[in-house]
Amino acid sequence: MALTARPSASAPDISIYDRRESQVRSYSRSMPRQFNRAEGVWLHDGNGGRYLDFLSGCSSLNYGHNHPELKQVLIDYISSDGITHGLDMHTDAKAEFLGALEDVILRPRGLDYRAMFTGPTGTNAVEAAIKLARKVTGRELILAFTNGFHGMTLGALACTGNAGKRGGAGIPLSHVSHEAFDGYYGPDVDTAALLEQRLSDPSSGLDAPAAILVETVQGEGGLNAASPEWLRKIAAIAKKHGALMIVDDIQAGCGRTGNFFSFEGMGFTPDIVTMAKSLSGMGLPFALTLIRPELDVWSPGEHNGTFRGNNHAFVTATKAIRHFWADEAFKSDIARRGALLEKRLDRMAKEHGLSTRGRGMMRGIDVGSGEIASTITSACFDKGLIIETSGAHDEIVKVLAPLTIEDSVLESGLDILEHAIRAALSPAYGVAA
Amino acid sequence: MALTARPSASAPDISIYDRRESQVRSYSRSMPRQFNRAEGVWLHDGNGGRYLDFLSGCSSLNYGHNHPELKQVLIDYISSDGITHGLDMHTDAKAEFLGALEDVILRPRGLDYRAMFTGPTGTNAVEAAIKLARKVTGRELILAFTNGFHGMTLGALACTGNAGKRGGAGIPLSHVSHEAFDGYYGPDVDTAALLEQRLSDPSSGLDAPAAILVETVQGEGGLNAASPEWLRKIAAIAKKHGALMIVDDIQAGCGRTGNFFSFEGMGFTPDIVTMAKSLSGMGLPFALTLIRPELDVWSPGEHNGTFRGNNHAFVTATKAIRHFWADEAFKSDIARRGALLEKRLDRMAKEHGLSTRGRGMMRGIDVGSGEIASTITSACFDKGLIIETSGAHDEIVKVLAPLTIEDSVLESGLDILEHAIRAALSPAYGVAA
Amino acid sequence: MALTARPSASAPDISIYDRRESQVRSYSRSMPRQFNRAEGVWLHDGNGGRYLDFLSGCSSLNYGHNHPELKQVLIDYISSDGITHGLDMHTDAKAEFLGALEDVILRPRGLDYRAMFTGPTGTNAVEAAIKLARKVTGRELILAFTNGFHGMTLGALACTGNAGKRGGAGIPLSHVSHEAFDGYYGPDVDTAALLEQRLSDPSSGLDAPAAILVETVQGEGGLNAASPEWLRKIAAIAKKHGALMIVDDIQAGCGRTGNFFSFEGMGFTPDIVTMAKSLSGMGLPFALTLIRPELDVWSPGEHNGTFRGNNHAFVTATKAIRHFWADEAFKSDIARRGALLEKRLDRMAKEHGLSTRGRGMMRGIDVGSGEIASTITSACFDKGLIIETSGAHDEIVKVLAPLTIEDSVLESGLDILEHAIRAALSPAYGVAA
Amino acid sequence: MALTARPSASAPDISIYDRRESQVRSYSRSMPRQFNRAEGVWLHDGNGGRYLDFLSGCSSLNYGHNHPELKQVLIDYISSDGITHGLDMHTDAKAEFLGALEDVILRPRGLDYRAMFTGPTGTNAVEAAIKLARKVTGRELILAFTNGFHGMTLGALACTGNAGKRGGAGIPLSHVSHEAFDGYYGPDVDTAALLEQRLSDPSSGLDAPAAILVETVQGEGGLNAASPEWLRKIAAIAKKHGALMIVDDIQAGCGRTGNFFSFEGMGFTPDIVTMAKSLSGMGLPFALTLIRPELDVWSPGEHNGTFRGNNHAFVTATKAIRHFWADEAFKSDIARRGALLEKRLDRMAKEHGLSTRGRGMMRGIDVGSGEIASTITSACFDKGLIIETSGAHDEIVKVLAPLTIEDSVLESGLDILEHAIRAALSPAYGVAA
């Protein structure tokens, strides 16, 4: 596989979308191509164009597109008439997934969780988590954080910080308070202490919470990475005040920050963990809410959904877990690539007096404004690199390359990015380039 | 393919579920088997058991399990590295789906809708629909109906009638009023008139609604089928009072009641239609919110989701639409099978003084109580027939066979059901049988 | 005291109101006079005008303006430096009020209530009642009724039916469902049965209520009088479903319908009763929430308010109770006057093919539209009669004369009304008159 | 009038309260006396006891009990059959009040407000204010503050910080966010800047507010006095973000902090001001919402209430305004007494290493815990001094003496307090005393 991105020169006919797809579509606007094929880190359009994917389905494709081993088990499964849709019946595919989860993920990490298969979307996993927290505690308030993103259905949307998304609700979003994330008020303000003060004050107006819902690295909110120390404080605050701690690991989990879970090795254990995105390994819809057994107080069917337990996803997820997580090799690869990414982004930041964000293979660079960021990502696209933005003002150019990317390909993509940033921030260079 | 169901004698080891799956699981409790393979109307377990499926994934498998043509296009697509996950980018698979939707479904029916690909679950399609209705109208109240079922995420759950499901929310469910469905107060009360009176009364306490959200046949709520006359009145009321009419066609659509949409030929056009379940044709997670173009006021990305636009589902849905809906043959089959089903259920009802419910291939029989219904469905399962219940008290035994079922196989399943009802309601028979 | 109303010919200078009083003022718009003195049934303006008061402060002046005995005890109390403001401290005035309430009102009626002195407004009494019902039951939903009116603060406003008032909230009003009042759907529909059906149906979408809040006669909502039979059904429904029954007796209580409480002799006992308006006897701000002792689970100060327990009002209320309610004479007067009022309104209704509403001395006539009603009340005002409207469309001309009105004065006021109706509805007559 | 407090030795029979008054009563528990008479700073019980009042009806009696001039105008008014209850009709009493408000209060201060006469309670004035802010802005969120207290009806209660009060709601309190008051996080954290950061961040999760609702000195919340600088920042933040600034001056207004309004001379003008408590001058129920004319967008009657515009209170309020605020004498008295109070409290604080709170004649001392504070106030009561606590833990002993108190009487009351503190905090002294 060559290392060279090769964008198409011209856009295809996309009138069918104008005619029949809702205005709500978004990514297709900044990428006016029609894609037909993908493998590994590459997306292909129908005009011979090839694009290096530094977006990875917003971290849904941590193992790349159509990984051959995952693809094969899925084809085999379909060919043999494996159960495709089985509601929440027992199936071989589910049993094997649960076995892999237990053997490869939970037991070696000393974790004891039960899996709740929610509808196969991240937002559904979050809805289930906050429902359960409310049921367990008998309280209604969820504490979420500034710049947090948790989904678009009403319960999850109330936990999301973004005003544009929130405005879509059409009703006031209630029962959630947004607290300041780690570092939100600058390095000198311990936002955990601010929260603790109000929770301990019976006259603060902050009601006792059912749960604290947190991302360890805020994917949509600007790649803000919380420190382990702050997260431990938050876990301790939750425990002290009788609230559950929910880690939303939908974007940061499945290896993106270096381990299967983003909170590993930090010295605390969440009560509930939500997963989705890269969980199936192949980009299939799949979501999971992990629950400490003593909190699993659901009645049968109290939360359900037609597509809970996507059997195709069980098959690929099982393979992904056993293939990538049975030994230390993949973690070691991520660590090396993450360090490479960090080094390159730091260099770009230093060159232009910018700052970087993130952790592991989930990193970005703050280019100062959404306009500049958009200039940069457009220039990248024109060179065949798919890369997107994040943050309150879309001012963070984020790199979410597949974790399986070859180091050299990662470098070549970062070269494109480096040039685009230079062109955007050093106009003279831009003209010359 | 033989006509005989052949249940397994013994249950498999399911300890992994006790250990690792949440208590929330439900169907697996009444079907203590582990399934591994399915084709057409048959589910197979690992012990040689074969089960006739009158549940069809709650109407998600209208074309049966693993339909060979759908299966083949999916295998071909995967084999050729077709895009699996593409956020909402343009893909060949999406363009083809939109084309099929336009050519085969919308244009011949004189319908003009735009497709919004929400997260691939019914509840997400409903959340998007009510968000949009609130945005378009600037109002907050949704009118839903007694016994309505619309999903488990907070916005959709507020529209759902079932107290057990609602109780799981952990917070008061607001911004929705549940009105009496057609026939709810008996045949002599025109519930549309009751609604109209309160909406026209500025002192009724019923706020002006953003939308009226209705199922034409209530799948989970007891297979109550609204009359076309009543639905036309509801559509007229919505129009008169500036509200949108949303038909939730998630369970009743895709042919279940005889046509692609359940509201066809009734003399009104919904403003918004939600679809999911059988839309992919193969049971893959997929959902769609159809919107009249003039109501498509979304901002880009205002509602989104990682798995919106499941490309595998685009492929199978396109094939399903072109295969089943390009001519009248399939509709004719459904009509014949629906009539057969009606006749057989009427006979059972008459024998025991019971009543039937439903329309098309979405019918059931009210056996009087959830206990009796459970006795019946258990007896069916023991004979190799998977059949489930519906209704406020689970008192309706519902038949949701694949629409593709051979007439003779349908009859053989109904034979099992007929015997089980007789055994449950005529104890002497039961002993003798 | 003469019987003749004597309106002023011209309006006074009211520029100070334009300059310094909010646009929210309402009654002063239809009565462009400035009043300075009042006694019994008469209001006086500064220009020598005298107005017969058929509004009575919306039933806050059941014993007329400045009743001499009430006036005297208040002057004596103030003169002797009686406690004016004492928060909820024990005071002689409060002890005497509680004694009178116990001796004259509760004990003879076999009622056992505790008095909660809320802030001195009806809305506050309602807020306290629904708070307590929610606390006692652990539920959130209040069932109120079409055309109900319970106050303007957010909790009470949510229970109020009027769209104009509700619109002022600026936020969605939640946690309340408005059910159809007695007769709302016509004489043939038993609205209690409709409610019972939905409450007994676990899939109706109507959550289990904390309380049913009802007026026996809807003062603002059109003088709709519930039948004793219907109210007994509602009381039975509340009991069956574990909800409290709250009678809002703010407008209908204190003799307005013939007895001290409007629900006397109907065969049920409310769990909570709210009172205000005429409770002080003299129009002073005063409100009371009566609670069955076993439901009095308040913590000290859990609901409070600076002006709870208005001591001036204790003094006049004590006198009013002992003066009017110690024997049967007053009740007998109300019965006679109510019959007279009924007879006269029936005659007017018959003359014009209209219908009447109400009970006791709380009656009105439906003149068909708010425009006609406004024409009538304006004409009355021009003749020196203050009379107002009620109902969803302000289409009910309501007579809320002081209960102490002389029969002949009542007749003279009704003469004015009769002529005004005739003028409005028989234009020829109007021209001639 | 002697300076000596003279408590009664024994408690009266209070069985009527146990039998007939709700458990919600509070102050009467710590003051087991029955009061019958009051004048100036003194409360009398029926057993010859006399109590110096450092509570003043929680600042409702700033001019003392039954001030002779106020008393006299009220007796004269009642004697002449002045209008007692007139809904919102024009009355002489109202016109005179508006005139005094304009002449003596607004015009000299260069303020332009319209008066909205809400139901005569502080909570109702707050409800009206936040309703109007929501109507004007079309937004729903109110920003209130930690330790804020605004009333007990649902709208105002949602703005109140106290968990015990909030818990009484029985439903989740929504549409309000509690921000950190001035100094809440210690002297080094600028809480206005924290708020500004989140309001300016479109991804903070803090929605755009309709209003910022603030007390300049938090009466119930611990006598925390905001600095003028901080209040100016809050006013600027409100303006910048399109929100109204509402000053709740119910407890701090009417002279308590030195001027008629607590915010005078601070360099900003609130959009809305709420008043109640001492507004009538004599402790009569009375409340007022002052509105900048351009924000007075109410429809007639959109917010109303039976007792809005208490005419007795108009009479006494008019007299109070003209008597106390027509010249500088009273302000000068308050300033002197406030300084005296400050000096004495500082001395007590210094003696025991404690801190003081508040401003003007609204000051207190933090004695470290509610238990100690309760010991102190009980000891004071035994010496004939009525004094109460404030703060999240009731740890602040607060002095709310009538503003009209003689300096020497103030000193004598403070002597009692000083000894009680010493006894509580220096046990050895306590034994000896």
Kindly estimate the percentage of residues of chain A that lie in beta strands according to DSSP: 15-25%
Give the number of DSSP strands of chain A.
18
Largest interface: A-B, 117 and 117 residues
Q: Averaged pLDDT of chain A, please? A: 96
For the record, the count of structural domains of chain A works out to: 2
What's the CATH topology name of the largest domain in chain A?
Aspartate Aminotransferase, domain 2
Q: What's the multimeric state?
A: homotetramer
> From the coordinates shown, what is the CATH architecture of the largest domain in chain A?
3-Layer(aba) Sandwich
**What is the terminal-to-terminal distance of chain A?**
27 Å
CATH class of the largest domain in chain A reads: Alpha Beta
Q: What is the strand arrangement across the widest sheet of chain A?
A: 5-13-12-11-8-6-7
Radius of gyration of chain A: 22 Å
Overall helicity of chain A: 25-40%
Report low-confidence residues of chain A grouped into runs of 5 or more.
none
* Annotation field: number of helices of chain A: 15
CATH superfamily annotation of the largest domain in chain A: Type I PLP-dependent aspartate aminotransferase-like (Major domain)
Q: Report the sheet with the most strands of chain A, covering strand number, pairing sense and barrel closure.
A: 7 strands, mixed
Q: Give the overall form of chain A.
A: globular
